[in-house]
Amino acid sequence: MMAKDQTKPMFEKTQRNIFIFNVKHGVFWAPFLLLIVAVVFSFVNLEQYMRIATQINDWILSKFAWLFSLSSFLLLVTLIVTYFSPLGKIRIGGDDAKPLLSKWRWFSITLCTTIATGILFWGTAEPMFHLYQPPESLGIVPQSTEAIQFTMATMFMHWSFTPYAIYCLPGLVFALVYYNLQLPFSIGSTLSPIFGSWVQGRKGQVIDAIALFALVAGMASSLGTGILVLSGGVESVFGISSNKTVMAMIALAIVMTFIASAVSGLQKGIARLSNINAQVFILCCVFVFIFGPTGYILSIGFDGILDYFGNFFARSFNTYTGPEDNWPKLWTVFYWANWYAWAPVTALFLGRIALGYTVRQFIMINLILPASCAIVWMATFSGTAMRLDHLTLGSLHQVMQEKGAEAVIFTVFDNLPLSAITIAIFIGITFISFVTAADSNTDAMSNLCAADSGESTSECALNKSDEKINSEDSTAKTKMLLKFVWGISIGVIAWVMVSFASIDGIKMMSNLGGLPAMIIIIGTNITLFKLIHKASKGHSMEPVNK
Hints:
Elements: H1 2-19, H2 25-44, H3 46-63, H4 65-84, H5 103-113, H6 116-132, H7 145-159, H8 161-180, H9 192-195, H10 201-238, H11 244-291, H12 294-310, H13 312-316, H14 327-330, H15 332-352, H16 359-391, H17 395-403, H18 408-414, H19 419-449, H20 466-500, H21 503-512, H22 514-536
Helix pairs in contact: 2-3, 2-10, 3-21, 4-8, 4-15, 4-22, 5-11, 5-16, 6-7, 6-16, 7-8, 7-12, 7-16, 8-15, 8-16, 8-22, 10-11, 10-15, 10-19, 10-20, 10-21, 10-22, 11-19, 11-20, 12-16, 15-19, 15-21, 15-22, 19-20
């Protein structure tokens, strides 16, 4: 009888844990509920919601533009120093650590889960903005040769080394503190070498919750953009006009696919999709390079590279604009804020898959190679778009004004051979890109929210107790439930915003997270300098509890 009475509370506790998903409440509930409240507010009074969000966003970009520019520049400098420092030889996870992934799979995941979804949309659309509306303070004549060169250099600035540095540095620091120092799976762990236990526990959960809110809002924005692009593709191929039903079906297809991918695990899900996507990325770029204006692509790409590196310092600090010119705030600083908002949580995923490789290899795979690929992509697609717009007397710019930025890429393909096939392929890689990005981020989010996710690094099999081994199955189920919850929630919010409200509202929310995220990553940058100093003194990267 006594045994029965003792079993009943255990059973009730188990049921209760399943009901509440066994989550870190301080990390999960605040971002989840805040996002729902924000969406409801935008529904009730969109005009007031946008006014308030815009005012706050403008204030952040105006007051902290200098810090966004300075800190992003310093991240890149720090990574260069790290690459050539003694820390560059350190192996993530220790000398005996074995890689989770091959180099190709690792690179393909990195390429397809960070800014790859952005270059698909903006590679042809953004040049139309800069070509026709360059910064006033530079005195550049719109559509002139100087405007074309400035546009290409700007595309390199916005989509290559600096944005990848914003992702790479926190990812590298997290990999070192998680695997080598064996700290918990938390964004706060990247600050622990500086602040110690003060940024762990409840305070660490506050840091995680802020970063999680920014990422969830950003994912809803990105998915909303993806819905718009794909609905434009469906209209281009099948002649089905975009409407709420079509967008709902697209959102459902994306969400169900990346949830299925997440369920199948890292090796079978994200890695397999990224492998396919990276190969199609390369083939698509080669096709446009060969059948597009090849000579012009090479010429404008070379000129853009010279302009980009020649004016890198000035444009990194926005020193080339006058006090009344809002161009940097509307574009460059806006981008840095957006990258920062995504970076802390994305870093958890990038760091977790880097086991077994050295610091230098991490920088090569997460910064140098993807940034170089982005330069090639932008030279090819942006160069093709600008040349086509010039030859057709502004037709692409007119298409963007009449049908939206998402229609530009399909117009470009319409002017190349085999347009029906290439558009179908492009729709496919766009779909897979959003799936892999959502898959990787929901993986990091579920690890961040799960109550037991930070207790041990299971990939390393480091000092597991029997109790931890027995709890792994429960933790895995919790993470799976969280992937379903976040995936469905983000999909519904994205569809609601693009169908009934304004996707700009979610974008604003994402950028609002850029300020606290930037502060976190500035601290992470200081952590990396501390690790460089430690390595230069010949100290080993051992767990902090030893």
